[in-house]
Amino acid sequence: MAVEIERKFLLASDAWRGAVEHSERLAQGYLGGERASVRVRIGGGAAWLNIKARVRGAEFSFGTTLAGIDVALELSHADPRDRSHGANHGHVLARRARTTGRIDLDRDFGPLRAGITVKGAGARYDDPANIVRLGGHATADLRLEYAPHPDWTLLARASNVFDREYETVAWYYQPGREFHLALRWRPVR
User: Fold this and answer.
1) Does the model's pTM come out above 0.70?
2) Where are the beta strands (DSSP E) in the chain?
3) What is the total count of domains within the chain?
4) Nearest to 80 by CA among 61, 60, 62, 100
5) Do 179 and 150 share a structural domain?
6) Structure confidence by residue, pLDDT tens digits, 108-166
7) 31, 89, 110, 125: which is deepest, by most CB within 10 A?
């Protein structure tokens, strides 16, 4: 069975319970093996799928609110090497960047919510033999949400606002600058 790597901490008191603003029940299930485990969590109309495997590297994620701004940060540095015993043993896995990162900043202004996301990834190889190298890239996205009524939200998004040309697969460029506009109806019960 896979080894659980999450850490649990003993708290000195239950004083933290007074700061809880919202809680909900989650249902979860596990599927484990010798080299990896899969966890599914479902709750509140959403689902999360976590796949844990042996990876050499480190990942960091952090979320908080500072001066009214919701901040989410994710950083990852891994050594994605082919550990098979074939011709590509020791090569970097195809299409896997060693370093990736993302920061999200969002703020509410009454019924208006504004946000920016900056994402980046280091160089990668497109092929298992590590011959075709793809450069690293960084992009920025902007978003606005306006909720004139609890049931209705107007969404506007600009993706890749600096129109950065980049590839995640050789000879297949990702979309340039894009604009999206949507109206969402989600009745409040």
Assistant:
1) no
2) 27-32, 36-43, 46-53, 57-66, 69-78, 99-109, 112-121, 124-125, 133-134, 137-149, 152-159, 167-169, 172-173, 178-185
3) 2
4) 100
5) yes
6) 999 999 999 999 999 999 999 999 999 999 999 999 999 999 899 999 999 999 999 98
7) 125
The string of DSSP letters for 73-91 reads: EEEEEE--B--SSSTTTTS
32-57: buried (b, 16+ CB within 10 Å) or exposed (e) per residue? eeeeebebeeeeeeeeeeeebeeeee
Which residue carries 């604009």 as its tokens? 179
Are 17 and 89 within one domain? no
Distance CA 73, CA 103 (A): 5
CA-CA distances (angstroms) from residue 167 to 9, 58, 93, 157? 42, 25, 16, 22
Give dist(CA 63, CA 39) in Å, integer.
Answer: 21
83 and 18 in a common domain: no
Q: Are residues 81 and 114 in the same domain?
A: yes
